[in-house]
Amino acid sequence: MNQSTKARIFILLLAALTTLFALMPPQPVQACPAYEIEDCVYPNGVTCRYHECPKHQTTCNGLPSGTPTCYSAGLECCV
Question: Between these two residues, 20 and 41, which has the higher pLDDT value?
Answer without folding.
Answer: 41
